[in-house]
């Protein structure tokens, strides 16, 4: 084989060997294996590479600075280069670099300057779990490549805080720390809140969690807040009182009290039942705007009748309660006297009878109101000549110059002149005779009852005596 040809063959073989060797030595940055296999140059020559590991607070990472005795083309014809970017893939043309500053020193700087709660041995264990290893002289490699840059966050497992917000309740659980890749068991404790039922936690990242449940979410720092879910399952409280509970001529009063300490009062509706018409009617509604205060509302009943009331109280959560009152009795109508129009008020030989009946219906109905206690007939002197519960009868006769009563001795002489009729009902009202403008009935001579004056009676009798004397 000619010498030139042999020399070319030898050169080709050397380049092939160099390529194979370079393919086995890669520079790895933050993402292990993410840079691919970066080819290295030849390893011949006398240049010396020295590795310095250092912590960069600016990048929060451990970075490799390489110094050389002679300028390197890959370093821009300089003698130093720092791998400050995880994507930096500048190859290192060395197989036996020297150690200028140890990785342990860089880790110590990261712990002290970065404020990490770590140990040097713990960080080295993390690096080994990631696939890095110490070559034996303090130079760290990975599968043939060198460790040039790694973020502190990648060395330290990501953690974040899980805190609990009782949202108005008590007994809130203490916070926890979630470590990346480790399932966290949430606190078993449950908060408490008067009037509410605890239904779990709503996480600030979304989702619903429960005491003692598994929590697997990972994030780089910060806080995830678990906020209590409360359900108001407590009904509001309230009372209703209606008066008067016996017949009265006054208006009725309905007083309602209500309170809801949880979601607050929403509305209050008052219904009325009429025993006269046998119907329900909504008479008043109040909007209470979610107040937690104890409130009192009053309703004045101006209608007459017999009524009972029911109040329905609702809170903002949709809970409700109802309460009912006693019956109230309101009689605003006067009793009615009947029978006066049947009394004979003309001259007659028959002793007239006064027969009075009464009724006390509620206005516009045939329903009895408070009722009539008594009917009284009085003479001009104010003396009672007849009385009854709801009816009364009175007969007055004149015979042989003297008065004779059918049922009662009557000593009042004719000059007394008149009798009064009064009606007293159960609510204590003295009322005029309904349907008549006459409250005084004149007692005439003989057996007559008429609306004439005593003076007229005496005049007629005198004329009669004069005729008989003639």
What does this structure look like?
This protein is mostly beta strands. Helices cover 13% and strands 40% of the residues. The chain has five helices and 33 strands. The strands form eight sheets. Strands 2, 3, 4, 5 and 9 form a five-stranded mixed β-sheet that branches. The protein has a five-stranded mixed β-sheet with strand order 11-10-16-13-14, with no helix packed on it. Strand 19 and strand 20 form a beta hairpin. The longest helix is centred in the first third of the chain and has 21 residues. It is rod-shaped. It starts with a helix and ends with a helix. The relative contact order is 0.07. The N terminus is likely disordered.
Strand and helix map with partners:
Elements: H1 3-23, E1 27-28, E2 49-56, E3 61-72, E4 78-82, E5 98-101, H2 103-114, H3 120-129, E6 133-134, E7 140-142, E8 145-147, E9 149-151, H4 152-155, E10 159-165, E11 176-179, E12 184-185, E13 196-203, E14 208-209, E15 214-215, E16 223-232, E17 237-243, E18 252-259, E19 265-274, E20 279-291, E21 295-301, E22 305-315, E23 320-324, E24 328-330, E25 336-338, E26 353-359, E27 372-379, E28 384-388, E29 391-399, E30 402-405, E31 418-425, E32 430-431, E33 440-442, H5 454-469
Parallel strand pairs: 1-8, 2-5, 10-16
Antiparallel strand pairs: 2-3, 3-4, 3-9, 6-7, 7-8, 10-11, 12-15, 13-14, 13-16, 17-18, 18-21, 19-20, 19-22, 22-23, 22-24, 25-26, 26-29, 27-28, 27-31, 29-30, 31-32, 31-33
């Amino acid at each position: 084989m000619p010498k030139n040809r042999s020399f070319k063959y030898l050169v080709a073989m050397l380049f092939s060997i160099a390529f194979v060797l370079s393919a086995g030595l890669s520079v790895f940055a933050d993402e292990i294996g993410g840079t691919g296999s970066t080819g290295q140059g030849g390893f011949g020559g006398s240049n010396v590479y020295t590795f310095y590991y250092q912590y960069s607070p600016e990048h929060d990472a451990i970075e490799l600075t390489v110094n050389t005795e002679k300028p390197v083309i890959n370093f821009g014809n300089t003698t130093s280069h720092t791998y400050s970017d995880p994507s930096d893939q500048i190859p290192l043309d060395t197989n036996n670099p020297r150690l200028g500053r140890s990785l342990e020193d860089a880790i110590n700087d990261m712990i002290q300057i970065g404020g990490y709660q770590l140990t040097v041995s713990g960080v080295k264990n993390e690096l080994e779990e990631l696939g890095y290893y110490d070559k034996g002289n303090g130079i760290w490699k990975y599968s043939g490549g060198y460790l040039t840059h790694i973020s502190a966050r990648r060395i330290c497992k990501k953690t974040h805080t899980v805190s609990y917000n009782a949202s108005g309740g008590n007994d809130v659980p203490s916070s926890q720390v979630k470590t990346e890749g480790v399932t966290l068991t949430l606190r078993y404790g449950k908060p408490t809140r008067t009037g509410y039922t605890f239904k779990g936690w709503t996480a600030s990242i979304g989702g619903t969690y429960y005491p003692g449940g598994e929590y697997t979410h990972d994030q780089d720092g910060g806080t995830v807040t678990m906020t209590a879910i409360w359900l108001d399952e407590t009904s509001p409280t309230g009372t209703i009182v209606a008066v008067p509970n016996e017949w009265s001529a006054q208006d009725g009063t309905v007083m309602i009290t209500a309170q809801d300490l949880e979601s607050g009062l929403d509305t209050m509706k008052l219904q009325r039942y009429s025993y006269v018409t046998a119907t329900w009617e909504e008479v008043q509604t109040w909007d209470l705007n979610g107040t937690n205060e104890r409130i009192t509302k009053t309703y004045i009943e101006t209608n007459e009748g017999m009524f009972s009331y029911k109040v329905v109280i609702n809170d903002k959560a949709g809970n409700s309660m109802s309460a009912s009152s006693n019956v109230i009795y309101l009689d605003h109508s006067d009793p009615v006297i009947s029978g006066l129009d049947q009394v004979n008020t003309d001259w007659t030989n028959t002793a007239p009878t006064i027969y009075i009946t009464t009724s006390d219906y509620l206005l516009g109905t045939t329903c009895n109101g408070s009722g009539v206690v008594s009917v009284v007939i009085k003479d001009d002197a104010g003396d009672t000549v007849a009385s009854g519960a709801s009816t009364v009868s009175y007969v007055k006769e004149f015979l042989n110059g003297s008065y004779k009563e059918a049922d009662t001795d009557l000593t009042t002489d004719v000059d007394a002149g008149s009798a009064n009729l009064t009606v007293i009902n159960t609510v204590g009202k003295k009322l005029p005779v309904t349907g008549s403008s006459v409250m005084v009935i004149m007692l005439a001579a003989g057996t007559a009852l008429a609306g004439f004056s005593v003076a007229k009676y005496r005049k007629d009798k005198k004329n009669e005596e004069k005729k008989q004397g003639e």
